[in-house]
Amino acid sequence: MAWVIILRDYMSPSRTLRRFLPLVVATTLAAPTSTAFSAEASRPQALPFCPEDTSRLLAQDLGRRRAVDAGTPIDISSDDASVDVGGDAKVKGRVQLRQGDRQLSADEVRVDTRNNGVDVNGNVRYQDPELRVTGKAGHYEAGAAQFLTAEFQMLQQSSRGSAGAISLKSDGTLQLDDVFYTTCPPESVDWRIDAKHIDLDTAHQMGVARNARVRFKDVTLFYLPWISFPTGPARKSGFLFPSLGSSSRGGIQLSVPYYLDLAPNLDATLEPTLYSRRGFDLAAEMRYLTAHGQSSIDANLLPHDGVYGTARSRIRIQNVTELPGDWRLRIGAENVSDASYFEDFAQGADKTSIAFLPRQLELSYRDDVWRSGAVLRNFQNVDRGLAPIDRPYTELPRLYASGQWHTGGSALPIEYGFESEAVDFRRRLGVQGWRMDVMPQAQLRVEGAGYFLRPALAFRSTTYQLTDTAPGVDTSPRRNLPIASLDTGLLFERTAGSNGKRLVTLEPRLMYLYVPYRKQDALPVFDTGLPDLNWVELFRTNRYVGADRVGDANQLSAGVTSRLFASNSGTRYLAATLGQTVYFEQPKVLLPGESARGRQASDLIARAELKALENWSVDLGMQWNPHERQSEKSEVRLQYRPEGAKVVNLGYRFQRNQLEQADVSAAWPIANNWNFYGRMLYSLKDRSTIDQFAGVEYSSCCWGIRAVARNYVVDRGGRRDTGVFLQLELKGLSNVGTAANAFLERAIRGYSPTSRNR
After folding, report:
1. How far is the C-alpha of 626 from the C-alpha of 604, rounded, in Å?
2. Most CB contacts within 10 A, which of 268, 312, 325, 366?
3. What's this model's pTM, rounded to 2 decimal places?
């Protein structure tokens, strides 16, 4: 290490010259150069969902900078200096020391040339890109430093504190004795850690405290002989803070999670939970990520439920792996021990209304032409009100393949190809067997500026090989039929408003469809249904979803769309659609239990999305029955959202003979640092509340607390659950309580917790 002492003129030139002329103006002492890291760590893969990768790469960069700084000369400037007989230099009066990115100032500095160190006294101030320290005295050498009775501030993490002694190592480790640590501002220390000893790794943003007390508002929350905590976004193994909650179905519950940072692309969380009414539950979650895929497993095991009387469990597996040669493997499976599991443990009516849990294994191939694969799929039924004959079939397997080609560069731009599948449907009750479906097709695509014309032909052939049929029923039925369509549309646009600031479009569309009638009553119904009528369904070639029925058609679908844009930015202010299908012949093909239409036209579909002002939006949708002059379905959504933390929603949903609901939700600041949250989902048909909650939150710069009370329906019988949730967040340390952000985002449309007022 090289020492360079430069004596600058802070006093009169003549006095400075007389005092410093006898001195050596620049003294260089050779010493070995030390490094912060003996070897550079290998670069981890920068993968999504691995936030610590960025932190570790920053740590490597910081280590390289510190290694460089440790070998650079130290520049000391002052208005007074002296050299003793032994060669030590003593500098006083506004002393400033620099070495690379490090800066050190004090009233007095003594350079120990024998030990290559610097002693500082009086108004000591130290700063580097990560740390700022003020104290009474200290020692500095080769990138390391020690300070006594000092205050510190972590510049990248907004944390600070004070200590009786601070030791800064060249690798960025900070050792603190008799210390308090907080992320709160000096004028309001609402929470703090008081500890005998704390180690802070500024590079990896981690802290470890020993003999520590976590205090909030001068009240000791708990004492821990050892606690590990992050000082930044990086992950680290260790206990997370416990969570406390209560509900009418589970009683008081206490969870103590433990997090395992196993690798940059692998982590796990174990969360044992004690329910006062039900017993002990162990939850576990593991996530794995590679450059070619991602996996997750989460599970719960309650060996004995004191209310239910038996063991309860749940497991879910998700995996997506990109294989060589455009192949992909996808696994998704979930299972619960009983049909009441979600009613007892899921939080919210949206979870307790789950009817089926899918299990699926899929191997697929996809490129510019081909799409093919094999699927194994079945379902666990968790709807106790569903009859066995109505439960979904198991598919062992579903094989599919399709190809698409085009005559590129030809005078006739034709697209042609095929779709096909073969499925083996299995179920304990009812007809079983194979279904093979093949449909070659061709389409002429004539397109230009403002128009398109797409005549198309297809031929669909479906064959069955059935078992467990009724006596005398054909076990090998089949269906063959052609499909012809002509789809065409126009696009008109013009400028509007002052100086042409608006762009208005008018987009009419027509599609004629002809499908001859084929009697299909003898065909089984494995996976086919009638979807909701919407804009997309108006222009499909089959009014059913699934291959068991192909609707006969001699019809014309007509629709029009109009949009209003900002000419300069493309922002859409308005989008409105209107469409209907006219039947030249009455459709005859029906599903079991489906009523004949007996009308010359379908219901009228209308939808409008309006952004009238910057913060307002309106979404309107309706399915109107012109024959009976009444609405079959309607939906209205009104939102006022000046920012993510301020949002008010009003909604109305109607479906004839099924539901009629009103929905009101809001998140809004009500005072300085105070926010309100609430929602009510009310069934007008049943004259009862489905889900309701209300809560308040106080959020300052270093801590926050949220309280939410909730009551909601948990099953079809109308039973309800009531819960109270409390969350205390010590920002920069961790949180105590039940995490509510994800719940609030689901329940309040447009709410964003990252935009809360601080």
Report:
1. 7
2. 312
3. 0.77
